[in-house]
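Retro notes (design track)

What went well: tokenization of the new backbones is finally stable.
What didn't: we kept losing track of which sequence belonged to which structure.
Fix going forward: every design gets posted as structure first, then sequence, in one message. First example under the new rule, 135 residues:
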């Protein structure tokens, strides 16, 4: 039952990531900046736009891989681990900027990614993965 819930969670999380961080970064970065990030879209200089759209393309790829991995999370554990590593690294970067640059408007990102990671880590059948890897 836990694997079924995990599979559905991964699918929903993948679609949310694909749309909220992928599609918006690639196709409507100014909208994302204003309505999701709560920032002035004029910050999107040509260099920032390139980085923003590149992040969106990467997120779209990771989201598609996650959606496909949801069919068998034990078999596709590298994709799950990739999501965990990306999430932890993202939290580290954003927390650094909050603490060093006082980027307090980024707490929404911390909570969103933190909650998504906590759910993923709690749902993942780590004991079964150990058994699977021993085979």
């Amino acid at each position: 039952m836990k694997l079924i819930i995990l599979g559905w969670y991964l699918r929903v999380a993948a679609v949310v990531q694909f749309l909220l961080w992928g599609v918006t970064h690639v196709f409507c970065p100014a909208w994302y900046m204003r309505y999701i990030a709560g920032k002035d879209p004029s910050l999107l200089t040509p260099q920032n736009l390139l980085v923003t759209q590149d992040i969106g393309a990467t997120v779209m790829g990771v989201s598609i891989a996650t959606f496909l991995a949801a069919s068998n999370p034990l078999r596709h554990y590298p994709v799950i681990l990739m999501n965990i590593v990306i999430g932890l690294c993202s939290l580290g970067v954003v927390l650094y900027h909050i603490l060093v640059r006082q980027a307090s408007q980024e707490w929404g990102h911390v909570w969103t990614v933190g909650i998504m990671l906590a759910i993923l880590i709690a749902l993942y059948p780590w004991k079964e993965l150990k058994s699977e890897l021993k085979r």
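Added context from the reviewer: The first helix runs from residue 2 to 27.
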